[in-house]
Amino acid sequence: MSNIPVEVTNKLASSQNQIWQTASMSVSEACGQAINFSSPLTVGAKTSDLYAEFGAPMMVVQFSFANMPENSQVVLLPQETVTDLANLVLPEPVQEIDENLVAELRNSLEGIVQGICLAVGNIKNETIVASGLSIRFQIFSFPPNLQKSEEILRTQIAMTGDDLNGTVIWLMDSETAHFVTGVTMEEPDAMPFQQVNAASGGFGGARPAGPEENNGLDLLMDIPLEISVELGRVKMLVKDVVELGTGSIVEIDKAAGEPVDVMVNGRLVARGEVVVIEDNFGVRLTEILNPQERLQKLGEVA
């Protein structure tokens, strides 16, 4: 079941054409070429399902609205789109994507953010300013607010121009989507595990549960589960895998110091930091799903 209300997803989807028409004008003016953004498709997506999708280096444009500095948004351009855009707006053919190329494209990429802010400001009838803008070509690493979100909003947009036929992906968390659409955000249940079970007379009800009421759950408690810790992922071509040998270094999609994922039977349930316990590695948990959500994850596996 979706954590983001259908009303929010639908309202955000209905505003996308207006947002990206404004972005088209802003980017076209910034780069001196006709650039068009069209056919936006907005869906709710589980964050855990997106890690594998973004395993290759991409142009990462990260920012937030100034009134929501902790709620980072990300605009992603795949490598092919970046190359086509650079060949369109720069005088010389692109040989490689490096820091110099990123600097040359910065005005064009800032135009996307300016267009988004201007359009959202028009929708809300207030001035919207971006903050914390960073533009890098790298393997994408989810900012903290998206990492801790079980579900986020993903919009894919076609980006076209002369000899340009690419895609752009816009990611935001639920709080940002509620702000853009003007939908009031409901307060989360303080103790969802107890409240859910209260309806059935289980844990957290008006009276303590008797032993006979716990029997169903107690039967599950001795089932062994496989817990794995995932440092990161990367996509590689078959030829690159074949060429790996002793001493080869495989670069993954996590920056140093980022939390690792703790998986139970292949399902993400927590994140934490790696620690050393005597001669062994361990993980100190920094984020974890509540008990009800953990049981739901295990139910999905079953």
What can you tell me about this protein's structure?
- It contains 10 helices and 10 strands.
- With 302 residues, it is of the alpha+beta class.
- It has 2 domains: 6-181, Chemotaxis protein chec (3-Layer(aba) Sandwich); 224-301, SpoA-like (Surface presentation of antigens (SPOA), Roll).
- Strand 2 (57-65) and strand 3 (73-78) form a beta hairpin.
- Helix 1 (6-31) packs across helix 4 and helix 1 (6-31) crosses helix 6.
- The two termini are 16 Å apart.
- The model is unreliable at 190-213 (pLDDT under 50).
- Beta fraction: 25-35%
- Show unreliable segments: 190-213
Query: How are the strands ordered across the major sheet?
Result: 1-5-6-3-2-4
Supply the CATH superfamily name of the largest domain: CheC-like
Number of domains: 2
Determine the mean pLDDT: 83
Q: Tell me, briefly, the overall form.
A: globular
Question: Mind telling me the C-alpha Rg?
Answer: 23 Å
Topology pattern, helix = H, strand = E: HEHEEHHEHEEHHHEHEEEH
